[in-house]
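1st attempt posting a full record on here, be nice pls
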Amino acid sequence: MHDPISDLLTRIRNAIRAGHSKVDVSYSKIKVEIVRILREEGYINNYKTTGEGVKKTIRIYIRYAQSSESAIQCLQRGSRPGKRVYVGVNQIPRPLNGLGICILSTSQGILTGKEAYQKQIGGELLCIIY
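the predicted structure (as tokens):
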């Protein structure tokens, strides 16, 4: 697997399209941080890590409204291994005029665009979610 973040986003996107309530993805520290932000922002219900060593996985519980519509409408990858996208403080995107979030990899860790703007730091744009 060349791009684990794209794999995470694609698995979530496919689970939503299939109507699944949960999805399992392989474990990595950056994936856990992205999923933690999704939970804090209310896009997923919860997550938990299971297994040990090489077989460690993250189980993500997807949030649906009563009309069986997912809380996540769009998952877009920002930076790719072939084309890195870096943004400064003034170029941090605001999806849907602030209703969506963007996730950045900064020198202070994985942050949302709003947190990075408050701390006045830019970074690599990982993904945009709304």
